[in-house]
Design a protein that fits this description.
Helices cover 69% and strands 1% of the residues. It is mainly alpha-helical and 629 residues long. It has one domain. Strands 1-2 form a two-stranded antiparallel sheet. The longest helix has 35 residues. It is globular and about 65 Å long.
Length: 629
């Protein structure tokens, strides 16, 4: 009965007015963000939601019918997705990957298939156009794979929605931050929280102006606060080579403790400290960090130490934690599966359709990857194990981390590690990672938004419809806009300065991994089955000990896994955030703190988003200004 009462509050949010908001993001912010990424190297994805929400709230404030909170939620929540342009950026990235001289240097230029990207000698590449017959196969395969991926993400999100929201009713702390942003601005009942939201927004805006806008306004790029961290690595390099140390300058990192359990942050912090301060030094000392060079920055050490060594135990540990979580929570999982067609009205669908869609879509995607990789029966087993089995297991792991602790993470290069461990080591398997052979984790992000939808009293199906609409229209628009940029100048080129740096760096990392996994060329990286096994054993032992001692296996396992994938600068700032949170709690009092902590975080993010958006606009104006001298 209670569920029915809650359900009756849910209203439609996907309306003509919210569609206008989505189209505004696609037509205005999408090309802006694409240029910003190519020229500056950043992203507007963080700023797009608050910019779009405030703009349309003000536009409709003067109409007879202001924007509803349901419409406001749709515009706010979908803006990041709409501003990304992922499909087009993937296509141009593939072009560079195949045409770069580094491909020849690493000895892999001859193994890149035509369905990945047209050959450098192709007329389509010479003319810099997507509108050519040579692009039919690459675009069709990529678009098909991504469409299947969206259906798979939807299916996984729907299942996890049943289990984690309807059955277990987990808190989703980060979802409350997003909901507070929308409700504080769009719901009259939250007027009493607007003062706190405004104060936090001013703090975020002021900090963002100092960090992002001042360097743009000054001719000599006066950097008062370096982004994204103060790198202290050089001060300890002579004492502990390989170790990294720093403090994040991202204000968001200091507000995470406002909603994330402090015990989880402590586990994450201790793990990151053990791995990237002490562990990396031991790796250098014992010759395991083969890619280390004196003078490396914190970010470089983080990336290359993971590729050199930590990838192996992380993969093993991640598999162990995922399996243990499935076993530990088997009651809820079986209950969710058993009740899959007995869904209340709160749910997105009332049938088993998502389950059928998951298996049908993953089967089609797996068969497509299998066909492109050469129809080897063993390859089909590998592809199914990753794309279907591991996607389900890892999505459950990520979903629980998000639902309980408000954090999500990935295991980078998991698929390349599987290619190597399996003994296949075939370049064809490497390339089908973009065509069905991948770990589908997008359903977890979708799950988060479905939770926010219920907090904003919006029908979850409203967001699903907006999500698919944005994907389809945004994918087509991104190709058209990137075609315009590509026609103006080659990508990368001096016309788009950041691309001259980012494209080669990203490609070099992939060349190095590809040549190692397939044993073609470089041997700078080693995939070690023994380290993977040790990681698996440690994961099982720690989870079992936590269970036997009455501690949360989720807290220990997920905290360690998250710490292994978190910059030490960010982990330190998370911990400092605990101190800040407790100071504010002491000032406000416990009751007011509990009522305000999500609003403070939401306001801070909103202010930062506005500052970033303002910085980009001013940067564009400076770039467009033609001086008479």
């Amino acid at each position: 009965m209670r569920r029915r009462e809650n359900t009756n509050k849910l209203k439609e949010g996907f309306t003509i007015r919210s569609i206008l908001g989505i189209l505004y993001v696609i037509l205005i912010l999408l090309p802006t963000n694409m240029y910003y990424t190519l020229a500056i190297g950043g992203s507007l994805a963080f700023a797009a939601p608050i910019i779009s929400l405030i703009f349309f709230l003000e536009v409709f404030r003067f109409s007879e019918r202001p924007l509803t909170k349901q419409e406001a939620f749709i515009i706010y929540s979908i803006a990041s997705e709409a501003a990304m342009g992922s499909v087009a950026m993937a296509l141009i990235g593939n072009v560079y990957f195949r045409a770069s001289p580094m491909a020849e240097y690493f000895g892999i230029s001859g193994i890149i298939p035509d369905w990945w990207a047209p050959a450098p000698t192709s007329e389509a590449i010479q003319l810099r156009t997507f509108f050519h017959s040579d692009w039919i196969l690459p675009i069709t395969i990529l678009f098909s794979a991504w469409t299947l991926g969206k259906i798979i993400d939807f299916s996984l999100a729907t299942y996890l929605y049943y289990q984690l929201i309807e059955i277990e009713n987990l808190p989703f702390p980060l979802a409350k931050v997003s909901a507070e942003t929308v409700l504080s601005l769009a719901d009259p009942r939250y007027a009493h929280k607007r003062r706190m939201f405004a104060i936090a927004s001013i703090v975020g805006l002021a900090y963002g102006i100092i960090t992002y806008l001042v360097p743009i306004l000054t001719d000599y790029r006066l950097v008062i606060i370096p982004s994204p961290f103060y790198d202290l690595t050089r001060y300890i390099e002579h004492i502990a080579p390989g170790a990294s140390l720093g403090v994040s300058t991202d204000l968001v990192a200091y507000t995470v403790a406002f909603y994330m359990p402090h015990s989880f942050i402590i586990v994450l912090f201790m793990t990151s400290l053990a791995v990237y301060l002490f562990g990396n030094h031991l790796l250098v000392k014992n010759g395991y960090f083969k890619l280390y060079m004196p003078g490396m920055s914190l970010g470089e050490i983080f990336t290359w130490s993971y590729i050199s060594y930590w990838i192996n135990p992380t993969v093993g540990f991640g598999v162990a934690i995922a399996l243990f979580q499935i076993i530990y929570n088997r009651k809820y999982i079986l209950d969710a599966i058993g009740k899959f067609r007995q869904v209340g009205e709160v749910a997105t669908l009332k049938t088993k359709l998502p389950a059928y869609m998951f298996f049908a879509s993953t089967a089609i995607a797996s068969l497509m990857a299998w066909a492109l990789s050469g129809f080897n029966p063993y390859y089909l087993l590998i592809i199914v194990s990753v794309s279907i089995v591991w996607s389900f297991l890892f999505s459950h792991l990520q979903g629980r981390a998000l639902a309980e602790f408000g954090i999500t993470f990935d295991i980078p290069y998991f698929v390349p590690a599987i290619i190597y461990i399996s003994g296949a080591r075939d370049p064809k398997l490497w390339f089908v990672q973009t065509a069905g052979f991948t770990v589908y984790t997008g359903g977890v992000s979708l799950l988060q938004q479905l939770k926010v939808a219920t907090l904003c009293e919006t029908k979850p199906m409203s967001y699903i419809k907006a999500w698919f609409f944005t994907w389809f229209v945004g994918a087509i628009a991104s190709i058209i806009f990137l075609q315009m940029f590509w026609s103006i100048a080659p990508i990368p080129s001096s016309m788009y300065p950041a691309s001259l740096i980012n494209f080669p760096v990203q490609a070099a990392e992939q060349y190095l991994l590809l040549s190692t996994v397939t044993e073609i060329g470089s041997k700078a990286i080693t995939m070690d089955i023994h380290s993977i096994t040790y990681g698996f054993i440690i994961g099982v032992v720690l989870s079992a000990l936590a269970y036997l001692l009455g501690k949360s296996p989720s807290l220990i396992g997920l905290g360690i896994l998250a710490g292994m994938r978190t910059w030490i600068s960010t982990a330190i700032s998370f911990t400092i955030g605990i101190v800040i949170a407790r100071i504010i709690q002491k000032i406000l009092g416990r009751e007011k703190w509990e009522d305000s902590r999500f609003v403070i975080a939401a306001g801070t993010y909103a202010g930062l988003g506005l500052a970033i958006g303002l910085s980009v606009i001013i940067l564009f104006l400076k770039k467009a200004l033609i001086l008479p001298y």
